[in-house]
Amino acid sequence: MKKNSSDKGKVGESYASLLLKKNGYKIVNKNFRSRFGEIDIVAEKDGYTYFCEVKTRWGVSFGHPEEAVNKLKLDKIKKTIDYYLQQKSGSYTSARILVIAQIINNGSLAYQKLIIVD
Question: Which InterPro entries does this entry report, sorted A to Z (predicted)?
């Protein structure tokens, strides 16, 4: 049976959540949506709030997953972050964008990388 894109996204986000937890991040929100876009995972660590974009590929025929996070995608993420921060009352920590790039081959995680975008 083929997985649909929603199922694949959930699998990718599960792998990403495990990686974040393993590296000491505290997950505070998932799948935050606005009219500008979606933030897959919001996490905190060391005084920063990380807005995570999870990119999972099921092979490399379309390139590496991090290549899909281009300027247009980053602009949408930044607008969504601004909206997220406006919705939260009180103080917040410094914000950073974190791309979690993953490749899954034959049902197993073959590649995973955390990339902080400055």
Answer: Restrct_endonuc-II-like, tRNA_endonuc-like_dom_sf, UPF0102_YraN-like
CA 43 to the chain's CA centroid: 10
**Residue 16, both tokens:** 């990403």
The two tokens of residue 77 are: 């993420």
Tens digit of each residue's pLDDT (9 = 90 or more) over 76-92: 999 999 999 988 765 66
pTM score: 0.89
39 Cβ neighbours under 8 A, 6+ residues apart: 29, 31, 32, 51, 52, 53, 77, 80, 81, 84
* Range from 2-11, 41-50, 103-112 carrying the lowest mean pLDDT: 2-11
Residue type for position 106: N
CATH architecture of the domain with range 5-117: 3-Layer(aba) Sandwich (3.40)
Cβ atoms of 15 and 9 closer than 8 Å: no
Give 105's strand partners: 108
Unique residue bearing structure tokens 């991040």: 25
